[in-house]
Structure formats: C-alpha cells, structure tokens
Specification:
By secondary structure, this protein is α/β, with parallel strands linked by helices. The protein contains 3 helices and 8 strands. The mean pLDDT is 88.
Length: 141
C-alpha cells in the first residue's frame, strides 16, 4: 500500500446543514453533480460529507454509533493568531468550541472545535511543521 490518503469522508446527520457549515468556513464544493454526497477538493486530497445512514449501509455496519470516534482532523495555520481566527470562524458557522486555544507542551498553540455532527477538528500552529505555499505540511526529516 502506498503511503497516501486519497479521500476523507465524514458521516453526517444532515447533509445540507453540514454543507452550509463548511461553506461558511470558506470551503468550495466540488463535483456538484454528485447526488446525496458533497465533495470538496482540499489540496491533493478529496473530502466528502456523506449522510450517516447511507454511509453505514454502504459499509455494512449499524449507523447508531456514538461517542468519541477515536480520531480528529487537523487544520494547521501559518501563525498563532490565525488559530484564534479559525476557531472564531468555526463557532460563527455553527461549530462548538471544545477546547479554547492555548500554548501546548510541544511548543505550539492549538484549540479544538466540533462541527455540527461532533467531528473534532484541532486548529494548530506548530512552529516545527512549516506550511508550503500550497497549504501542505512539510514534516521534519
């Protein structure tokens, strides 16, 4: 298996509500011809919002899962101030601040929000992970 993630799909309770949330964050929907699912191009990755019941049926699992999902998505910023701005933007779009931004033990600055379906996003400025002009993270060797 090549070391690559191609598509991240989030199961959502209300597709229209979730699309509005991400569009309020400034994201632009791609491939709008797809019905019942929303796609966004995020750099070299694709991101989708998929109704929870439909995703569970397609995978062949019950849709009634709840609680901590065991993962979080992350959005790294180019500055500490940008962390606060992104968290404010997420809250204004209908997200819930889970952890206020603060200095972190690893030398950065981060906070977390949950989208309308409770998917966790960490917003972080990490001085050890420079961000390229195209938005990709450059991990240290």
């Amino acid at each position: 298996m090549e070391q690559r993630v191609s598509l991240i799909s989030l199961a959502v309770a209300d597709l229209d509500r979730s699309v509005v949330f991400y569009e309020k964050l400034g994201w632009t929907r791609s491939f709008e011809a797809a019905e019942g699912i929303a796609f966004f191009q995020i750099g070299g990755l694709a991101f989708s919002l998929y109704p929870r019941d439909d995703m569970a049926r397609d995978i062949g699992i019950p849709a009634d899962g709840s609680g901590f999902e065991g993962f979080a998505l992350a959005h790294n910023t180019r500055s500490q101030n940008e962390v606060n701005a992104v968290l404010q933007e997420a809250e204004a779009a209908g997200g819930r601040i889970v952890r206020a931004a603060a200095d972190q033990f690893w030398g950065g600055y981060a906070g977390c929000f949950a989208d309308p379906d409770g998917h966790l996003w960490e917003v972080a400025w990490n001085p050890h992970f420079p961000i390229a002009e195209d938005g990709s993270i450059i991990l240290p060797a």
